[in-house]
Design a protein that fits this description.
The structure holds two protein chains of two kinds. Chain A is mostly helical. Helices cover 77% and strands 0% of the residues of chain A. Chain A has a single domain, classed as MetI-like (MetI-like fold), CATH 1.10.3720.10. Classes of the chains: A mainly alpha, B mainly alpha.
Chain lengths: 278, 300
């Protein structure tokens, strides 16, 4: 009992830190536009490469745009992409995974596709897809969702197969309950924990990879602010104006770290096997 | 599957390689004749069969923008990427495994966070950002490493090439050591809970000996899997690092060919990297079966 409490405490610490860090980012991005008088796209050549100060809190970039407000908008775009990718790949992955576990015939087809996509290294696949589809937010979302849904499908399929093998599902089948009933009543609640954990990680990886895509020039296009793109823009000015790349990089790390913390905490809390054994 | 995907998806790509090559204002006849000479006017299915037939002879087609065979272009770029991957793997293993073991040793105590947090940070911080900062700090300011570029082994010798790749390798290693630490921790913890180790503990064998002598030996198989996996994914992760350090490797080739809409080269690199990826995963499995007779038994 004592160790169980200890684990609970520690787990909660991870989850709480993750949520706290995320909340700060979220507040930052909602309050930011209200308190800053600048426009993320407005250039002011006279003010170029100004160091952080009371007017420009994070300084200005090479064409005089305010870095603070651009970071704020960059966070918004990153979060939107992260959430949408996590949702799309979560939903498609769940549908694919459950139906693969449930119906043996579709299993062959779906798992072949999943294995096929997973044979490609994720980053390369995302870069190639984004390059093919063309830059822009919608296309990044599509590219990242295609890259991540197989992982979720695989997790869901394995979890579903485990649930399907239990006696209560068997007895429900014997009682003549419909497949839809079993899926919604038994399977989905029981696969929820691994699914939520995987979706949290997907959220984190989507944000990290969006920044990579934007950095490489196949993601969000200039002049729209994106955290990865800002790092790429600020590269040439690093010795004179290090603030241009420092802040966006810190923010990406912050967001991804808080999501990873959340994911780790959730995994430890929701995985009954690990909890019992420790 | 991989092959079909590589071909068709890339051809759905909007944007015309001929247009990119000749510029937007090229006369229509020139565009038409070039399209014809590249075989791009044939129906897709015919293009596919021709391409597939050539693929069996390791012929990925000819680069549209550089005019060289795609396969030889790829082969030229393999050396730095592989060397980078090996270096990165070595570094990440040297950092990641001790980090994982230490966090197992401190499992349940607050000191565990000292070892799990660095691992988490290494996963979360974008490598392209650390790379740029490190270049500025270690290469530009104090001249410890070269800023960018690569010297080919054949011409300049191995030591010069390695020196160029040291900093990129370090960054790649740091980027992946978190994953290795995490896997080491998970698999070792799993084994620490086995009944035979409970017996060992009951018999009064010290905790340290249990960890280093019994548990680690048994988690070796899963650690090898991680190392193999991370080497394979490093070849992919190198895309970004190569771009920043201006290393003429496979990743660099992928990006330029995407920007130039150079179909044969994109397809070629995609297939090449994926095949390598699969081969490494296979080798890892074989190695695993070798260190863990139980797996071998299961396969048989």
């Amino acid at each position: 009992m004592h160790t169980l409490l200890k684990i609970r405490e520690k787990t909660n610490a991870y989850i709480l830190t993750g949520i706290a860090l995320l909340t700060i980012v979220f507040m930052f991005s909602t309050i930011g536009p209200l308190v800053s008088a600048f426009d993320p796209l407005l250039t002011a050549p006279a003010m170029r490469l100004t160091a952080p100060g009371s007017v420009h809190w994070m300084g200005t970039d090479d064409v005089g745009r305010d870095v603070f407000i651009r970071v704020i908008y960059g966070i918004k775009i990153s979060l939107i992409i992260g959430v949408v990718v996590a949702l799309i790949s979560g939903i498609t992955g769940t549908i694919a995974g459950v139906s693969a576990a449930y119906y043996p015939i579709t299993s062959k087809v779906i798992m072949r596709i999943v294995d096929g996509i997973m044979a490609f290294p994720t980053i390369i696949l995302a870069i190639v897809l984004a390059g093919i589809l063309g830059a822009g937010m919608r296309n990044i979302i599509i590219a990242l969702s295609i890259s991540y849904f197989p992982m979720i499908a695989r997790v869901v399929r394995n979890a579903t197969a485990e649930v399907l093998a239990t006696e209560y599902v068997e007895s429900a089948e014997v009682l003549g309950k419909s497949n839809t009933y079993i899926i919604f009543r038994y399977i989905l609640p029981n696969i929820a924990s691994p699914l939520i954990v995987q979706i949290t990680y997907t959220f984190a990886m989507a944000i990290l990879n969006e920044s990579i895509l934007s950095f490489l020039g196949v993601g969000i296009q200039i002049p729209t602010p994106s955290l990865g793109g800002m790092v790429s823009d600020g590269r040439n000015y690093i010795s004179t104006a290090p603030w241009i790349i420092t802040f966006p990089g810190l923010v990406i790390s912050w967001i991804v770290l808080s999501l990873d913390l959340l994911g780790d905490g959730l995994r430890e809390m929701l995985d009954p096997r690990r909890r019992r054994a420790s | 599957m991989v092959i079909i995907f590589s071909f068709f998806v890339i051809h759905i790509m909007p944007g015309d390689p001929v247009r990119t090559l000749l510029g937007d204002r090229a006369p229509a006849e020139q565009v038409a004749s070039m399209t014809k000479s590249l075989g791009l006017d044939q129906p897709l299915v015919i293009q596919f069969t021709v391409w597939l037939k050539n693929l069996l002879h390791c012929d990925f087609g000819t680069s549209i923008s550089l005019g060289e065979p795609a396969f030889s272009l790829i082969l030229q770029r393999v050396e730095p990427t592989f060397l980078l991957g090996i270096l990165g793997t070595l570094i990440s293993v040297m950092v990641g495994i001790p980090l994982g073991i230490l966090s197992v040793q401190h499992h349940g105590k607050w000191t565990e966070n000292l070892f799990t947090l660095p691992a988490l940070v290494s996963i979360s911080v974008p490598a392209f950002w650390t790379a740029i900062l490190m270049i500025q700090l270690l290469a530009v300011k104090i001249h410890l490493f070269p800023v960018a570029g690569y010297h080919v082994i054949a011409k300049y010798g191995l030591s010069k090439a390695l020196y160029d790749l040291l900093l990129p390798g370090l960054i790649l290693g740091i980027m992946y050591c978190g994953q290795i630490a995490r896997m080491t921790k998970v698999s070792t913890l799993e084994i620490m809970r086995q009944d035979y180790l409970l017996t060992a503990r009951a018999a009064g064998i010290s905790e340290g000996k249990i960890l280093y002598y019994y548990a680690l030996k048994n988690s070796l198989a899963s650690i090898i899997v991680v190392i193999g996996y991370s080497f394979a994914s490093m070849l992919a992760g190198a895309v970004v690092i190569e771009q920043i350090f201006n290393i003429p490797g496979l990743g660099n080739l992928t990006i330029t060919s995407i920007l130039n809409r150079d179909y044969p080269v994109i397809q070629g690199t995609l297939i090449f990297v994926t095949v390598i990826f699969i081969i490494i995963n296979m080798l890892t499995d074989i190695l695993c079966a070798y260190v863990n007779p139980k797996i071998k038994h299961e396969i048989e």
